[in-house]
Amino acid sequence: MAFKSFPPPGSPPGVLEHRAGRQTYPSRLCLIWYDGDRLEENANANAEDFLKYQDRAGIRWLHLEGLEDLTLLQDLGAQLGLHVLALEDVVEGRAPVKVEDYSDYLFIVSRLPTDLEEFQDEQISIFLGADFLLSVQESHIDHFAIIRERLRHGQGQIRQHGADYLAYTLLDFAVDSWFPILGNLGERLDQIEDRLLNEPLGQPTTELQGLRRQLLRGRRLMWPLRESINYLLHHEGVLISERSRIYLRDCYDHTFQIIDLLENYRDMASGLIEVYLSSLNTRLNEVMKVLTVIATIFIPLNFLASLYGMNFKTNVSSWNMPELSWPFGYPFALGLMLIVALAMVIYFKRKKWI
Amino acid sequence: MAFKSFPPPGSPPGVLEHRAGRQTYPSRLCLIWYDGDRLEENANANAEDFLKYQDRAGIRWLHLEGLEDLTLLQDLGAQLGLHVLALEDVVEGRAPVKVEDYSDYLFIVSRLPTDLEEFQDEQISIFLGADFLLSVQESHIDHFAIIRERLRHGQGQIRQHGADYLAYTLLDFAVDSWFPILGNLGERLDQIEDRLLNEPLGQPTTELQGLRRQLLRGRRLMWPLRESINYLLHHEGVLISERSRIYLRDCYDHTFQIIDLLENYRDMASGLIEVYLSSLNTRLNEVMKVLTVIATIFIPLNFLASLYGMNFKTNVSSWNMPELSWPFGYPFALGLMLIVALAMVIYFKRKKWI
Amino acid sequence: MAFKSFPPPGSPPGVLEHRAGRQTYPSRLCLIWYDGDRLEENANANAEDFLKYQDRAGIRWLHLEGLEDLTLLQDLGAQLGLHVLALEDVVEGRAPVKVEDYSDYLFIVSRLPTDLEEFQDEQISIFLGADFLLSVQESHIDHFAIIRERLRHGQGQIRQHGADYLAYTLLDFAVDSWFPILGNLGERLDQIEDRLLNEPLGQPTTELQGLRRQLLRGRRLMWPLRESINYLLHHEGVLISERSRIYLRDCYDHTFQIIDLLENYRDMASGLIEVYLSSLNTRLNEVMKVLTVIATIFIPLNFLASLYGMNFKTNVSSWNMPELSWPFGYPFALGLMLIVALAMVIYFKRKKWI
Amino acid sequence: MAFKSFPPPGSPPGVLEHRAGRQTYPSRLCLIWYDGDRLEENANANAEDFLKYQDRAGIRWLHLEGLEDLTLLQDLGAQLGLHVLALEDVVEGRAPVKVEDYSDYLFIVSRLPTDLEEFQDEQISIFLGADFLLSVQESHIDHFAIIRERLRHGQGQIRQHGADYLAYTLLDFAVDSWFPILGNLGERLDQIEDRLLNEPLGQPTTELQGLRRQLLRGRRLMWPLRESINYLLHHEGVLISERSRIYLRDCYDHTFQIIDLLENYRDMASGLIEVYLSSLNTRLNEVMKVLTVIATIFIPLNFLASLYGMNFKTNVSSWNMPELSWPFGYPFALGLMLIVALAMVIYFKRKKWI
Amino acid sequence: MAFKSFPPPGSPPGVLEHRAGRQTYPSRLCLIWYDGDRLEENANANAEDFLKYQDRAGIRWLHLEGLEDLTLLQDLGAQLGLHVLALEDVVEGRAPVKVEDYSDYLFIVSRLPTDLEEFQDEQISIFLGADFLLSVQESHIDHFAIIRERLRHGQGQIRQHGADYLAYTLLDFAVDSWFPILGNLGERLDQIEDRLLNEPLGQPTTELQGLRRQLLRGRRLMWPLRESINYLLHHEGVLISERSRIYLRDCYDHTFQIIDLLENYRDMASGLIEVYLSSLNTRLNEVMKVLTVIATIFIPLNFLASLYGMNFKTNVSSWNMPELSWPFGYPFALGLMLIVALAMVIYFKRKKWI
């Protein structure tokens, strides 16, 4: 877990440093400038390239992948006037999902899944200004290729809107990326359910606990994301236009759907554990009933057989096991056993055990 | 589950497209125009028919069944000035239950049950404008036949009120449709309870978990429905008249009753699981007690019988099983057994096991 | 359960009709007019009698028992200007506990217990106007005899105050009527607790679940009642005088006490179930320990006895059970058994099982 | 429980009457008048003595012990202008913990413990006016001796402040009195924990349930007390001075500490029950394992021994138990048994049961 | 536990006294005066040294370690105008985590861990004035050495900001100090999890309960800390500058992370207990199944063997155990046993027990 690398208490805030033992990737800055008509793209920009577009209207989208080069981030921060605490959050990569208002710009933190199987994810940090958007991610996974594509071809309304719409697009992407993970989790739950029906004692608790933990993590991630989007929805300021709010409302609905699914799965997982434990109990009852029925029928019979296996000498006196010398001694013994067994069976029948 | 067909992250919003693998039904538009005196009905209208009534006072109710023909929906949206995100919600059919205010009209999403046995339902989308109401459903189930009937015959006050009252009527219908489902669920719970009394080990957990899951789904559906109606109740705007609000309050009460029933059933289901598990435990105790009593009485007896079945040669020395040659050896052995058995019985009596 | 008779979805609101299969009682209207000095009473009034007192100052209390005659209720509604939706709530008899403000009058719904043993109750509906109060109950149980008595004899302050004080008196009655029920429930819980101490395996779960369900019902009834009284306490309007508010505060305290008792009992019931299950487990442990101790001591002994009961022929070779011919064979066998038994006992002592 | 003596529903409010079956103590009124310099005390005052100090500045503290003499209370109420509903709350002695604002005075209800072992307590009612404080308790336990002492000797700031500070002093006393009770509860929990470690099957559930119930009671008492103090802290009015508020804040912190302790103990009690149940389960497993190992090893051995104890006649044919006549029949049988036993032991070793 | 030393109820507030039985450490006052350029430090100051810097701009930080010398604290309080109730909170050392506004200064209470293994901690009290900060701790652990170091070398912005930034630095330290504790707890949870996988019956409940209790304590400490920082964030007043608020927001995020970790661990601990109990149940089932299979197969066989070990005299009549004299009696008996055993095995195979 990540907590071991927390900075020692008392270290000064706002220092950009890599966490010990954390993998970093080479930094790559991609700069896209666009307005309704034109789009210019520089896939390998430096911090100064940003200045070229300063006097031109239109939106500048800076996307930084990899945090190896902290100077680049620092330069960007200086150019755009970003607060060093926000930059520290970007570098540390474990800020809570949130929106912070720095008046000139909004600092939005969300998380993107990096692995469909496990609830692995990385931080995506967005600085939304009036005419620029800086997004930072840690890995080199090309999450936003599809959005660049939409920008290039002017698909949908993305080129007609401002930077706030671009921020919405990224956030919407961040939200929707969780659906495949959920689909995956749902399938695993379904598999466990199927397995449990066929093989009721398959000990699924450990696996279900693992899933539950992931669902709880998802929940703890999704609720602040929802709150963040709600904050943007009701943010009073010029950075979010009225037109974009309606789109954010749609994005808000998606978080609602995800939370709904998460709750569903949580109920399902809890339910499966309960079903498992209850079937364990039922099974134990059944096992014990079989043992008890067999044992309690045969134990008295066995006693009778042992009784007539005793070696008391019948010739010493007529008190000593005279049954052994009866002509019908054996049938008598068998009959006795039959009666005892029948009585037992009737008793169990009455108790509805057999 | 439906999550598998969520649009891939990054796709542009506001695109009307059918979800992959989802069944659609042919589109059929029914247009009803009415005021207090007259009513005109066109069961197979097209988007332009709507315009005919533009200059006439009165209410226009457009009801669209089936979403195969997305162009029809798009045309309707253009005519009525509906936002494309709302239309996307209509087409996708899995929007959360909600009310959205687009100033000129309200967009209301609710759900209608399509199957009495299972908690199957479909989305019903309502656009409420000042003088029109557009309702859209996916299937061809004729939910609202009774309401059209009431409109035609001017039953109740439905023709005297505006479009808001019609919206209330549809919402009220959507709420009341859940009562039969609940009745059904209640009956199944009663059946399980009866069965559990007769046959305490019938393993009802799986079934009860299923019911519980449906109840939770009902709850997750009903709470936002209640909130939506509450929102309409307190909505400040001209679209909802003061007169209709009193009726919405009645509808609000119904959601209250449904939630109350759902909670009741949830308690009942949880209680039944607890009763079941507890009776499993009691049963196990009883079984174990019978086994223990029988076994612990007979095991020492059996030992005694086996003891005197040993073949030590009595003629070698007088130390070797002299009991076998006693004249009253056998009665002595039987007496010993009786004493042991009685001691055990008294012990168990004291422990209140028998 | 009552849900089976819910009106079919889509039926028009505000229609006064008896629910199918519900018992109704003949309607009887009692009219009492009073002011500080005088009181006139008509135990068998009709809707028009009400008009006689229209011009006279003072309070008119109309109390309707039985709902067979819906016309009477309708006439009363017309005379007093009551909304048809409120009247529908009265007739249906399953409205949630609530207060509704219709500006000219308040519509208050509460519930009165009709049976001390079970949580059976009926709806009591109160319309509180400036100078009149209409109360409606379904059954002929004479709940309010004592209040009429207080009115007739001018006991307490009841004749000095307005209709709001009369409404408070009825509500206070409705709240206080639950105390005997709670006393009853408490006694049953005490009985179960006593029984559980004497006879720990008496399977009280089903009964406790029943009680718990009733307590939950009480809770679901009492919380909205509390909220309703709170609403009246803070209602801004002329219908509730400042002087009566202090009395309502007292009534509010009583709901607090009832909820406190309900919570107490709920904890008690849950605690009893836990104690029961835990004592089941303890008992099972004890039973198993006895079985295990007896069985594991005697099983090896029995084996030894059976061993020396084998019939290998000692005359064939000196390898065949020479023990049988030892002069001290039998004492040797007994000694062996004793040693085994002692070893077992010591083992169990060490494990603290005996 | 106290609910049995609730007044019958419908009885008029504001009547001062003793609850049936409740013990009352003789009434004793103690009047203390003080200002910064002087203090006069009358340990056996009557209602009129109060008037003597009417014209003199300073604070009058009336403390009434015992409620036998309801006339005295009524006279006091009349002199001080107290509402009859508040007096009724005083007499009944089961009002919820609360603060009520009667504009001229505040009516504060709290509870004082009367027994260190059990959660026994009595109501303490405080009427706080501008220049007087009336406190009423039911029993003759001299709770406030220490406060009178502080008044007499002018210890601390108590003589420099107004009646509000005196009220704070009493409330602070009422809060702090719960600490010893909590200490007691904590010790009992510690004892149970110790006992559970030594003797894991000591069935502590009933006792822990009792403690839990007391902790819940404490919680239900402490939360409204906290709310009451918070109400006083933020009460807008002249009765509470700014200077006294800081002291009330301190008292508020104490309720916080008590609630924290209560929560702590509740967790502890729940944890102990869980530990107990889990150790029951572990123990049962251990017991069953021993039984199973012993039984499954010896049962096959026993069978073999019984087998060779059969009496088939070897002289009839060579098919009948030829082993009995083998020279090494007995060693063969013993060897067989050894092999079976070893196989079993190896099997259990592999399963890690032994 | 600490509750035993609570002051007796009724003792006057605002008295500085050591709690009985509590260890105190010698008092040592360290005074640091600094502004952007200069820094003066007196590691062994007395209360009057403070006055020297009264006329000079800049920040005075007084740090008091150890509370043996209450006069020193009292003098400091007098010099700085601190309220005696706040000082009492400092001396008692068990005030809840809180912020109190005394207009001229803020009184902040937090807690610092003193032991990495256990959740041991001590109170740290901070008085934040316009140009001074007084911090008090009980022990001599030199928590803040690193912060003094930063001050001396002017690292970060600490010398450029006011006393509010210093307060933030201390609070941030107090928050971050909990991370190593959490790391420790997390490691112990991981160890328990590993152990549980290898040795499923290791009875981890007691240890997990202990961890859970510590996690709950952490939670009860962290929530009010979070609220306190939130209070400072939104505090309206001159004591907290706008510039410092951004840093407090960062500190607020850290509490968020800690609470998140705590919740994580709590889920983990609960999950481990569930996994343990479920594996206990599974294990019991397995054990019982083995016992049942072995016992129910051999019990009937044993009975048959005992049966033919009976000593009925075959020479008395042909009814007495004629099987013993059959030429193939023994093979017949063995065959019978084989059939019974096979039937049993097939039965168990069908039931999927083996």
UniProtKB/TrEMBL annotation, chains A, B, C, D, E:
This is Magnesium transport protein CorA. Keywords: Cell membrane, Ion transport, Magnesium, Membrane, Transmembrane, Transmembrane helix, Transport. The chain crosses the membrane at residues 290-308, 328-348. It comes from the Bacteria. It is found in: Cell membrane; Membrane. NCBIfam families: corA. Belongs to the CorA metal ion transporter (MIT) (TC 1.A.35) family. Signal peptide: none annotated. GO terms for molecular function: cobalt ion binding; cobalt ion transmembrane transporter activity; magnesium ion binding; magnesium ion transmembrane transporter activity. It is a multi-pass membrane protein. One of its GO terms (cellular component) is plasma membrane. InterPro entries: CorA_cytoplasmic_dom, CorA_TM1_TM2, Mg/Co-transport_prot_CorA, MgTranspt_CorA/ZnTranspt_ZntB. The keyword Lipoprotein does not apply. The keyword Transport applies. Mediates influx of magnesium ions.
